[in-house]
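Notes to self, Cell division protein FtsI [Peptidoglycan synthetase]:
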Amino acid sequence: MNIKNSILLRVRLAFLPMLLFGIAIVYKIGVIQFVEGEKWRSLAAEIGLEYRAIEATRGNILSDNGSLLATSIPFYKLALDPSRASKQMMDDGLDSLAFLLSSFYKDKPTSIYKQRILDARKSGRRYVLLNRKLIDYQQKKEMEQWPIFREGRMDGGALFTKVDKRFKPFGYLGQRSIGFINENGRGAGLEYSFNTDLAGMNGKALYRKTVGGKWRPIPDASEVRPIDGYDLETTIDINLQDVAESSLL
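result:
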């Protein structure tokens, strides 16, 4: 055997394991995708991650003089990532935080709030909904100065999830013209006709599905911020509207 043939033989022998390894990878991918695909997709749905929408703040509807006819008022749900705070921070501030939570919500004693946070931290949970009651913006600003919470989202673990509520300051006045829009995108009046402009553009954030089937935001994950909707200026004179509707009653 000459030198050239000897080299070619060695190259082929060296290439053979790589070829077999490549075939094995392709085979395994095929098995996972086509044979076991449904199994793994189901598992991912149970414990996986998913980008979910962050709703944009809906634009205001204004009268001819700039008075608010319809606006979105932000409220917040309070949650905590108990893994964020350091041991020293938790030791120093947890008693005070639990006391403030109990005093504010008036539904559970201080000891319950404290134990709930400690249990969640011990078990490695990354999200604990502290109370289902919605708080307003001023209450949120106050809570942001509480122990542990004052360290912010990254170091303290405080999580405030915004929930917008549509409010019409003049009540029934102009209600037919202002209209409404429901969760399915159906409605009437200005809210429906100008929905694209008022709605804005939703953002995206990464969520994790919990054991109970609920989706919780991942605090340090990347997100796409929403673009709030445009305000709509109308020619509605609320004073004339009041006179007109009163005359019909």
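- The chain has one domain: 49-248.
- The chain has a mean pLDDT of 82.
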